[in-house]
Design a protein that fits this description.
Elements lengths: L1 H13 L2 E9 L9 E10 L10 E9 L2 E6 L6 E5 L5 E4 L3 E4 L16 E6 L7 E9 L2 E4 L10
Parallel strand pairs: 2-4
Antiparallel strand pairs: 1-2, 1-8, 2-6, 2-7, 3-4, 3-5, 5-6, 8-9, 9-10
Length: about 150
């Protein structure tokens, strides 16, 4: 267990980090416990490949401070459903985020609130959640929790 914790801390320190817009999934499911299931919104790289409403295999990257999905001709374990604008999409695989108790502001949030999550992005596989936040103007403000992130 210590080796897993060490690997996660090592990855968090060396992998690129980014704030991504998130949508909650099954918000009121009683058996879920203190986990939020989130779908991340991503920008789509390139043009011509993406078609509205279609699902594509992708790989994730961080470019210019944004979470970007690149088309992966060989399935890479992640899929994105393309939005009508064909420039953005939503990851189909929900991200589970454990909500430490208490997280200021989370219980009274509405489903329409602007929720963001900071993630680290490995070269392969799903992003790894770090902390929740909300957009205030042109920046994302982290929600306060009992265990604040040391990097700020």
């Amino acid at each position: 267990m210590l080796s897993l914790a060490g690997k996660l801390h090592w990855d968090r320190a060396r992998l690129p980090r980014v704030w991504a817009a998130a949508r909650t999934v099954d918000r009121n499911q009683p058996i879920r416990g203190r986990y939020l299931h989130l779908q991340l919104e991503v920008d789509l790289a390139g043009s011509g490949v993406w078609k509205s409403g279609v699902t594509f295999p992708v790989r994730l990257a961080v470019r210019e401070g944004r979470l970007v999905a690149d088309y992966a001709p060989v399935p890479a374990g992640l899929s994105v459903r393309v939005s009508p604008d064909e420039r953005t999409g939503v990851l189909l695989e929900p991200l589970a985020y454990f909500v430490p108790d208490p997280v200021a502001g989370l219980p009274q949030r509405q489903a329409t609130d602007d929720l963001w999550i900071e993630v680290s992005v490995p070269q392969a596989g799903p992003p790894r959640p770090i902390r929740l936040g909300t957009r205030r103007g042109d920046r994302v403000e982290p929600l306060a929790s009992r265990w604040p992130d040391k990097r700020g």
